[in-house]
Amino acid sequence: MIPVMTIDELHAFLETDFPQIHTDGRVFTIIAIEPGVVRMRFDPAERHLRPGGTVSGPALFTLADVAAYAAVLAHIGPVALAVTTNLNINFLRLPKPEPVTCACRILKLGKRLAVLDASIYQQDAGKLVAHATATYSIPPR
């Protein structure tokens, strides 16, 4: 699987076609695109935290979903109407209120469906804080 978009192209696409993810400021940053993989950094703001000082589940779910979308687009090109058809997430550990990284790997990329695996971790912890699987529907060309 060879990526067809660069980090800059993907950021530009998300900025113009999916600006909602940056409504209250940029918190998602693509840090790497490799064959079959996209890595995205999430810098949680105060609104992404739960009482007790942990990153919220909905914020981690959003990270997995946006990273999966970015992984699909990085490999098929700027197709705005690729949509999530399923996303399952397991929360494994309480993440600290610090940056979180999602490594999203494409397991299968077909003409109509993509299946992905998302590992969410914090650098200093060295352990997964969450794991997700996603399926995306790809519209006909």
UniProtKB/TrEMBL annotation:
Highest taxon, organism lineage: Bacteria
GO MF: fatty acyl-CoA hydrolase activity
UniProt entry keywords in alphabetical sequence: Hydrolase
Domain Thioesterase: 52-126
Record InterPro entries: ACOT13, HotDog_dom_sf, PAAI_dom, Thioestr_dom
Keyword Hydrolase applies: yes
Protein's UniProt keywords contain Signal: no
Family affiliation: Belongs to the thioesterase PaaI family.
Protein name, entry field: Thioesterase
Lineage summary: Bacteria, Pseudomonadati, Pseudomonadota, Alphaproteobacteria, Hyphomicrobiales
